[in-house]
Amino acid sequence: MLVDSHAHIDVKEFDMDREFVINECQILIVNAGVDFQSNLHTLELAKKYKNIIPAIGFHPEFVKDKVNEIDKCLELTRYGKIISEVGLDYFWIKDEDLRKKQIEVLEKFLQIAEKENKPVIIHIRGGMKDFLEIINSYRIRFVIHSFEGSVKIANKVIEYGGLISIPPIIVRDKVRQKVAKEIPLDFILTETDSPFMGPEKMSRNKPCNVKIVVKQISLLKRIEEIEIEEKIYKNFVSLFTSSLTTS
Ligand SMILES: [Zn+2]
């Protein structure tokens, strides 16, 4: 079974053919809400399609203009199986106060994740140092979605108990290829971040494109595609089942 550990199938880009895209291949799709409306839409989709796993969150970019939705999103987490999309985005948000707000919001979601024993799928652009300091004080299973750092930082994430998730953009990104080659398969997940991060620039990405990621990892690691697919599925399942070691 293929796994897309991070997608946004609720967005308007899929209004024309959502059902087809969801059923196009045998796949589990984690749909991540980014604000109140998309969290609601995510829950609706999960009700309708068995292969959609609902993730509830609040995108860090929205600390700018959707702060009034934060509490409502926190409340919706009880209906999701995963917490996402949450994290830190220092790439788009440069203002110090807004970055502090991102940390404050992230911690609120992490507290819920720890209490309810839910995995968290994290968006990080530029805030890795702060993030690792924060996550160190929680006992949570976490994944860095669309990881964009070096092998060294990937190993740091693994040391802190996290997994690294890789999108189809890997076919045109040498840094991600190096990471996928170097880190052990035990710590890798696949995703698409659909409709973003496609294998070709400006193309609409879709969940079944995780096949492209599996193929690329297979080439880099010289392991059969089917073995990669099965191992990634196991890694995903273990997010919900594995016992946590104290950090
Ligand atoms: Zn996303």
From TrEMBL:
Binding site for a divalent metal cation 1: H6, H8, E85, D193
Matches recorded under InterPro entries: DNase_TatD-rel_CS (IPR018228), Metal_Hydrolase (IPR032466), TatD-like (IPR001130)
UniProt keyword terms in alphabetical order: Hydrolase, Metal-binding
Residues engaged in binding a divalent metal cation 2: H123, H145
GO function term, MF aspect, one: metal ion binding
Record's protein name: Uncharacterized protein
Protein source organism: Saccharolobus solfataricus (strain ATCC 35092 / DSM 1617 / JCM 11322 / P2) (Sulfolobus solfataricus)
